Fold each of these.
Amino acid sequence: ALTVCLLALALVLEGAARLRHLAFRVKSVAEAAARLNALGVATEPIRQDPYTHCAMTFFKDPDGLPLEIHE
């Protein structure tokens, strides 16, 4: 489902030159990162967002653009 969402989003945002990155809200960053890792997607270490104090991490899409998962 995540792959389908990312592909659909990529089509919608094609050509969005000013886009810095996209963030996806999840209930558990640890669980989402574990699932991504199990699918062969590398994630950065989980850290705490300095503004929201919630867990967060980043991974890259197939083009190397950063994507964030955030609680």
Amino acid sequence: RMSDPATPPRATGSCLCGAISYRVDGPLRDVTVCHCSVCRRLHGAAAAYAACAREHLTVVDPDGNLVAGAR
């Protein structure tokens, strides 16, 4: 999906090393706070997440580093 460069994204971000980035060009859904043991172990505390509709998300992965479901 091509986004309009004249309209700033609603949100942007990347993984810690910067190899994969994303932008959201539509509304974000409500923030969810997860207290499960996996999220607490991964983040050191409860973790907050937001979501968007798939059609508003653009993932940039120029080197093919993204692996779905990797653990």
Amino acid sequence: GICRMLLLSPRIQEAILSATPERLAMLTVDRVRRIALTPDWDGQEAIWASLVRGGWGTWHGLPAPGKIGLF
């Protein structure tokens, strides 16, 4: 649940916490759990980036995938 959020990389936590309600509606518990179960932050951020590229678009005004390291 919520405790798993603490296992996410800080950049992913920030993106989730600052997301609009519309963006949050696209984020499922299963997606967060899959990311949180990945033990290293680089691996988590690779999964996150693939989800963003898969149709989530930009989050909270951040550049599109490929513009910065995580997105």
